[in-house]
DNA sequence: TCTCAGCGTTGGATCGTTCAAAAGACATTA
DNA sequence: TAATGTCTTTTGAACGATCCAACGCTGAGA
């Protein structure tokens, strides 16, 4: 089957609908139908048209489709400045892209200025009809995007719960509380009782609060005290992170559950500085399962997010919203999974 | 100045060229000229049209522009499967996006299947006129993309030298050799003589070979032997990485320069396993300056790539290629910078 | 016999923009 | 006055697809 490409570099320019139509001896509308509503055609016509499409290597022009249908089949994603580094962004983007492509969509990147996303970028993309919807991430309290997009009737989905006052919009999130809960369970089973939590400042990050919550409820369930066992670091400051670990260790903690792998690393640092060995003297569990986790010594136990599923669900919810703008919002909470490595396999040194 | 938005959610649909024209009392072509060739208009007409454009919040429809001009103002970037994790991808993508936007372009993501990029994704994007060009990364020997794109006359730029036989195409790369050379210089200044290099298998990665080369030439310049001081790990296997470090340490190396932060971490692991402390017993320098480098204990010295500059140059070269398809190829080699942290500040323990 | 819905297909209008070329305005020159 | 040229604006036709309203024909129901 000689399937030549629709290359515009080949002589004669791109293959158009009309060219296919002429060669197949039908009108261009019929060719269009062959692609978009094959059931309208008589089987033999369909067969013939399809063969010609294949022979000529025809592919519809996205620009023309977009102009006519007013749908670009593009999904916008604002990529934040690297200030707040997200170690698994590459996997997330790959997952979203792949899921989008399976539905005939693609991801359009645009740069969000440092210091939090503004609405300008979103407005420009919309006004120019460049995108059909958005995937948001890093949605925090006070983020104006959700309300603004909702008001304008723009489809969007958030990766991360959106808790600006009353909940609005669709989102997909990971049940962080469930993850830290499982981490505590694992540590308790090993015999740990003094389990600390190292997170961010209360209220500064909703995901952080969520993860703290899981730790707290698991501790309570086992009748273990949490008082004085919660350390608060500021976001993105490794010095503060290290300082925040100290009172926890001074309090005799034999295990630390951290709200991110970065914080877990701060914990490693402080332990090393004191001449202690992470994993042996104090068990550590991180969050995110970033690529470096398994390369550390000892290998860092961490709570892995199901990124492929997240990407899939984001796209699914977004397409559903486009199809039914007035349907009730849908929220998906996915389970993370605890990846146990050497940093959390030992029982407490002093017996708990 | 009441600048209302071009929202399609507002009643009446989007603002078009014709609507602006009617309101300004000119033809739509004149409005188009006001935007694309302002010098054709009489100053007072230009002023009036511009005011109306601003009042109505008009923004040209990208789809219509694309259809007419045959240029989508989009740049394709194939994001590889997460198998080969690249820790600074987020910073690279942000940099490229930002640079692209300053030139009126945006980045279109598409998922490359695991196991190396295929041409299908590129062909589809081209045939549908979705992109004007590509940014490639992870270009290795035997990569068919460069030759294929060149043959079809598609503009592209590589991040990473493209060494498939004779060089083709434009690229931007980091002078890895210069980076490892500087690392050796730094270590020599500290008094180290037995400086090992931990890289990947010879020939498996061109960037890896390049980085090895810099180490070798610096060693030779100082009259230091390199024999038996080069360790070879396979890509992406931390066990092999750890094993590869051992002979280097057994050989009495007091410092290790690694071809990536991942490999440097393997080095940390092996040292810890032997009860040694990285940075104190053996100096370690990584490559990439991934976000975790400064969070390790001791903080990992690393060679940082100028990602913002890389993004800017990629876009610049790509646009130049589009403007002049037959111009001679341009290659940019950027200098990385050594970031010294605790892992490489001590003189050799035994005196070198 | 007449109407009418359904069949697979078609022609024409349309989406919003830019290109090419014609047309108008105005001053200059013969 | 008419011809010439320059500067500014308009007209008409694409770009390549989809939407809509019909086409002529058949068979079923009234």
From TrEMBL, chains A, B:
<dbReference type="GO" id="GO:0000976">
    <property type="term" value="F:transcription cis-regulatory region binding"/>
</dbReference>
<dbReference type="InterPro" id="IPR000843">
    <property type="entry name" value="HTH_LacI"/>
</dbReference>
<feature type="domain" description="HTH lacI-type">
    <location>
        <begin position="15"/>
        <end position="69"/>
    </location>
</feature>
<dbReference type="Pfam" id="PF13377">
    <property type="entry name" value="Peripla_BP_3"/>
</dbReference>
<dbReference type="GO" id="GO:0003700">
    <property type="term" value="F:DNA-binding transcription factor activity"/>
</dbReference>
<protein>
    <submittedName>
        <fullName>LacI family transcriptional regulator</fullName>
    </submittedName>
</protein>
<dbReference type="Pfam" id="PF00356">
    <property type="entry name" value="LacI"/>
</dbReference>
<keyword id="KW-0805">Transcription regulation</keyword>
<dbReference type="InterPro" id="IPR010982">
    <property type="entry name" value="Lambda_DNA-bd_dom_sf"/>
</dbReference>
<keyword id="KW-0238">DNA-binding</keyword>
<keyword id="KW-0804">Transcription</keyword>
<dbReference type="InterPro" id="IPR028082">
    <property type="entry name" value="Peripla_BP_I"/>
</dbReference>
<dbReference type="InterPro" id="IPR046335">
    <property type="entry name" value="LacI/GalR-like_sensor"/>
</dbReference>
């Amino acid at each position: 089957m000689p399937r030549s490409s629709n290359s515009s570099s080949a002589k004669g320019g791109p293959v158009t609908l009309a060219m296919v139509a002429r060669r197949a001896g039908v009108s261009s509308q019929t060719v269009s139908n062959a692609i978009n509503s094959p059931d309208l055609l008589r089987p033999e016509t369909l067969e013939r048209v399809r063969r010609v499409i294949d022979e000529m290597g025809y592919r519809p022009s996205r620009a023309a489709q977009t102009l006519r249908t007013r749908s670009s089949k593009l999904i916008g994603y604002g990529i934040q400045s690297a200030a707040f580094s997200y170690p698994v962004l590459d996997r997330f983007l790959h997952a979203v892209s792949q899921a989008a492509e399976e539905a005939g969509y693609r991801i359009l990147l645009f740069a969000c200025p440092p210091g939090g996303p503004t609405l300008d970028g979103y407005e420009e993309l919309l006004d120019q009809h460049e995108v059909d919807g958005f995937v948001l991430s890093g949605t925090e309290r006070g983020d104006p995007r959700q309300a603004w997009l909702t008001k304008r009737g723009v489809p969007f989905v958030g990766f991360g719960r959106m808790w600006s006052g009353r909940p609005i919009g669709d989102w997909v999130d990971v049940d962080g509380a469930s993850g830290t809960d499982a981490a505590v369970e694992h540590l308790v089973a090993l015999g740990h009782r003094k389990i600390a939590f190292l997170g961010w400042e209360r209220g500064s990050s909703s995901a952080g609060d969520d993860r703290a919550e899981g730790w707290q409820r698991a501790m309570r369930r086992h009748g273990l005290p949490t008082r004085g066992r919660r350390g608060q670091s500021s976001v993105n400051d490794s010095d503060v992170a290290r300082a925040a670990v100290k009172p926890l260790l001074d309090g005799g903690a034999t295990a630390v559950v951290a709200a991110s792998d970065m914080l877990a690393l701060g914990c490693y640092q402080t332990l090393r500085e004191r001449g202690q060995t992470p994993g042996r003297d104090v068990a550590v569990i991180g969050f995110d399962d970033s690529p470096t986790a398994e390369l550390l010594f000892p290998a860092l136990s961490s709570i892995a997010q199901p990124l492929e599923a997240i990407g899939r669900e984001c796209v699914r919810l977004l397409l559903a919203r486009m199809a039914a703008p007035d349907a009730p919002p849908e929220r998906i909470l996915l389970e993370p999974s605890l990846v146990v490595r050497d940093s959390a396999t030992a029982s407490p040194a002093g017996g708990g």
